Amino acid sequence: MQRTRETAAWPTPPSSFQTLDWPPPAFSTFLSPVKHYGQSLRGRKVIVHCNPLWMTSPKADLSSAKEERFNHAGLAPQFYPRIPSYKADANARLTAIVERNVTFLGGVDHLQNAYFDQKSILSWTLADDGGDPPRYPNAWKNPFAQVRMTVPVTAPYDPQRGPNSSRHKPWSKTGAGTTRFDWVPLDRSLQWGAFQRVIQTLRDRGNDVLVVLGPFNESMMTDENRAIYRKLRDGMASWLAEHKVHHIMPEALPSQLYADASHPLTEGYVLLAKRLNSDATFRNWMQPP
Description:
Strand order of the largest sheet: 1-2-3-4
CATH topology of the domain at 17-67 and 177-286: Rossmann fold
Radius of gyration: 22 Å
Structural class: alpha/beta
Helix content: 25-40%
Number of helices: 10
Low-confidence stretches: 1-10, 21-25
Shape: globular
CATH class of the domain at 17-67 and 177-286: Alpha Beta
Mean pLDDT: 85
Oligomer: single chain
CATH superfamily of the domain at 17-67 and 177-286: SGNH hydrolase
CATH architecture of the domain at 17-67 and 177-286: 3-Layer(aba) Sandwich
Distance between the termini: 18 Å
Largest sheet: 4 strands, parallel
């Protein structure tokens, strides 16, 4: 975590400190990166965010029998444990496993993502501009000239992101809770099982893990639905405590500081950072061994 004006009072992170802050679309796709690409994290302090969003329905949990398309499906377990919502054929599954284990193919993916608009060279060469009639601007370009050996960076201003974007606003001006999530019980949740395996994998590698549980936007829910969520959340905390995993369960932020069910606005992240910094569990965990 980098120091900012708002968090300047945070304790100095030890050199072996690491935050897993990417989140893939679901816990079930988190285990593969940790297992196959996280070897360098051995022996470090690691913070993992546990977002209950992935248990708000069987669809989000990927435990529904109906096919669901989700981001980064290649990171999900391909054959075992079985994901009911994942209906890829054998060819797609085997391809994902090969790409995961062959370093050269990972390099190819990087080149495609960085320089060829996330396409293969053939697809990039034949891509049209969407016009009528279509034009093929890349057809006569030299593909090797695309590889500029520089790291692509994001634009300094993205109209879809940041405090100045139209999307950066509270989820509700009234704060009245009307949502009824179809929460999946922990003992039937595919996502919760995957999260448990992530934690076990990290601990088996000697990582000192701290889990931040939530905070979920409780203001969105009806009173009845909020009670179901809190029972589920307390069950997650009980499992962490039973297995002696350091964890923090921050209280819900004010309703107006959320953009949706689980993503705070900028001011919400600032408040959350201050609350974490004042938490004794966090400060003790941050101390060097």
